[in-house]
Amino acid sequence: MILFPAVDIKDGRCVRLKQGLADQVTVFSDDPTAMARHWVDLGSDWLHVIDLDGAFSGKPVNEALIRAICSGQGMEKTPSVQLGGGIRDLDTAKSYVDAGVTRLIIGTMALEDPAGFEKLCAALPGRIGVSLDAVDGKLKTRGWVEDSGLTATEALPRLVDAGASFIIYTDISRDGMHSGVNLEAMTALVEASAVPVLAAGGVSTLADIETLYPLHAKGLQGVITGRAIYEGTLDFSEALAWLRAKG
């Protein structure tokens, strides 16, 4: 199971939001590339990078920083990067793949433009995943500020049929709150999904990872963590070693 350190970029800085709220910002570094290098130096093979400005504006904003991260600038190894935020057309998606992004996370487009999303998956097979971000079970779009009217399990079959190769599920109410994982919702989604699933939101201690780990056998590919590794409630190196010991 993969442990993904999150590098969220807003106004050119590495930040974390609480519950996805743009005005609930904690800045952890003025240099996102240095922060990315830190996690890679600790042994991470993957980075979970989000252009928050792009998510809110609907278009890429921090592309230069993202290109620097994907190039492995100053790093001992070049990380695999999964990227989300502001990717709402094929040209943007292709530009990021050309820049070295391994796979792309689509949110708004997947839920609001089914035809465009299917075209994107066909053009970049195996590289496109969907972020399903929910409050009280209902999915949000456009940077988590608008309601889609759908639940994750309602949206899932169409997304997989369209070509989604992985799913990220975030319980927004738990994101950045150190409140633990929503095991019931994660279990339901993993059991319903025909493609790998990643857990996000509320992963704040090693105990949370231990709680989620049994779902790996059912299709949980990884866990995304942000605020917890920046504030130290989750020791990234310890968690990485624990997962690698599990094989």
Largest beta-sheet characterization? 8 strands, parallel, barrel
What characteristic shape results from the CA principal axes?
globular
What letter string, H or E per element, gives the SSE order? EEEHEHHEHEHHEEEHEHEHEHH
Residue windows where pLDDT falls under 50 for at least 5 positions: none
Question: Helix tally?
Answer: 11
Mean pLDDT: 89
Strand order of the largest sheet: 1-4-5-6-7-10-11-12
Look at the helices and sheets and give the structural class.
alpha/beta
State the separation between the terminal residues, measured CA to CA.
8 Å
Q: Assign a percent range to the helix content.
A: 25-40%
Rg on CA atoms, Å: 16 Å
Query: Oligomeric form of this entry?
Result: single chain
The number of strands is: 12
**Strand portion, in percent?**
25-35%
Describe the structure.
- By secondary structure, this protein is an alpha/beta fold.
- About 40% of the residues lie in helices and about 30% in strands.
- The chain has 11 helices and 12 strands.
- An 8-stranded parallel beta barrel has the order 1-4-5-6-7-10-11-12, surrounded by 7 helices.
- Strand 10 (about 165-170), helix 8 (about 185-190) and strand 11 form a beta-alpha-beta unit.
- Helix 1 packs parallel to helix 3.
- The N and C termini lie close together (about 10 Å).
- The model has no long low-confidence stretch (mean pLDDT about 90).
